[in-house]
Amino acid sequence: MNQKKSNLPMIGGIIAALGAGVCCVGPLLLLLLGVSGSWIGNVTAFEPYRPLFITFVVLLFGYSGWKIYRPVEECEPGTACAVPKKQQQRKVIFWLSAIVATILVTSNYWILLFA
Fold first, then answer.
1. What are the b/e assignments for 7-25, b being 16+ CB within 10 Å?
2. Which residues are within 8 A (CB) of 38 and not within 5 positions of it... i.e. 6 or more apart?
3. How far apart are CA 62 and CA 105, in angstroms?
4. Cα gap 8→11, rounded to integer Å
5. Contacts of 35 (CB under 8 A, 6+ apart)
6. Residue 19: which of 64, 59, 55, 62 has the closest Cα?
7. Is 105 exposed, middle or buried (0-12, 13-18, 19+ CB in 10 A)?
8. Tens of pLDDT along the chain (115 residues)?
């Protein structure tokens, strides 16, 4: 499998996490940057789509985790999952992006502590 194709689920998971967190983190970040106005309240228009984004995050990261942690015997020789160094790098990137996605998805619960 092409290296770019194998990273698509993880990249998609991060994008979906950004979509899930935009309703809560977006207005706070804009206010912290000094941007204000009544239009900031419209950023919450994504709130009805939040469960859909969260579903995509879970599905894409689940698929990525399965691809990364599958047994090496299932990898074709010469692919990224067959090289131990690349496999370790992918695991680190996977967990870092999963942590970022979790922070963004759960932002509506902890963001009130800072606002």
1. bebbebbbebbbbbbbbbb
2. none
3. 15
4. 5
5. none
6. 55
7. buried
8. 455 556 677 777 777 777 776 666 666 677 777 777 666 666 666 677 778 878 888 888 888 888 888 776 767 777 766 778 888 888 888 898 889 888 878 877 777 776 6
